[in-house]
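Quick one, T. Sequence first:
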Amino acid sequence: MQDERKRTSEGCTRRDFIKFALTTTVAGMTIPFAHAQGKERLRVGVIACGGRGTGAALDAAAADPAVEIYALGDLFKDRVDGCLNHLKERLKERCNVTPERCFTGFDNYKGVIESGVDIVILAAPPGFRPVHFRAAVEAGKHVFMEKPVAVCPAGARVMLKYSEISEQKKLTVVAGTQRRHDFGYRETIQRLHDGAIGDIVAGYCYWNQGGLWAVERRPEWTDAEWQIRNWLYFTWLSGDHIVEQHIHNIDIINWVLKSHPEKAMGVGGRQARTAPVYGHIYDHFAIEFEYPNGVRVLSMCRQIDGCPGRVTEYVVGTKGVSYPSGWFKNYDGQEWRYTGQRPNPYVQEWVHLIQSVRGTGPYVNEARQVTESTLAAIMGRMAAYTGQEVTWDFVLNRSRENYLERVENLKEFGPMPVDPVAIPGKTRLI
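Structure tokens:
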């Protein structure tokens, strides 16, 4: 996932989290993070060395002093060099990357996986995730992978297949849905599951913010290289922002409801970001998801400057209402708010990952749940792009949409026309 460089309504950015990756603030005090027990060395390899890959490497090091960054890979040498310099500056001797363990080109991920690492970080544009996850699981590696984990139904099916294989191999898999590791979310949602506000009958989730970064094309870049460097704005690489970013909020709703949606209908469009640098994706979506028992959830996301921000989730029950991040109130006026410690969840997910790998904590494998949340977001995008009602059965079993094929056939930088902007009512549901 790309480093969100503009501040959201949650009041912090990924850059803030990375900056403070080695400490957290609780009740006004700065304290060191707790780390997983054990002293044996854990070698971590990074596949894709942009802001998120570099940040995840720092989070891993913050979680356990025995972690060392051992190998780096990226399509582009400038990304590997920039990541290596930053990690050596921040981690000193714990960045044990040699020139022989720096890999570039389309097969860079194979070099990292085969370098002798214990854990791989998968942080390439999401269109590449199924290819990289498949290779990591086949090699028996534990995985930290950024969300989303696919951009189309074909990719999601690969992820579901290899999530099952990863479980059979008892591999630890943690996804970048860090709210799952946030203490406030965990306690609140457990209380909701225990009936704190009764049966959930409706929900709302939002990621509304301003625009993100964009990379202008350089004359020396081919179509493919520019699109990959500017990957947010091409569905075959990012899935569009409902998949790439709003998956966080959709994942919380799935967690609260213990299910994925059964169908989706929605709208979306491209009004503010129409320049060529913004590729062909939308800048706003509004989706109605229908979950089992007829529970409906409004999902809204927007990336347009000059508009109010809102990044949150809200659910309505038969006995009360809740922000799953740490608050609920019953209709009789009783109110509860989470007041416990709240370590940096970007580091805490690594604490849980390492405890699982070492066997000092519960076994963790999030591959299936993050794939289901990814597929739910894809279903919403397809509904908005086409104007049709889209069912879970269709996207899971019958859709022929396949961006994965494009990724698998990409062996060199060359021509690649920009896909047309989707037009509801004209763009076909396939």
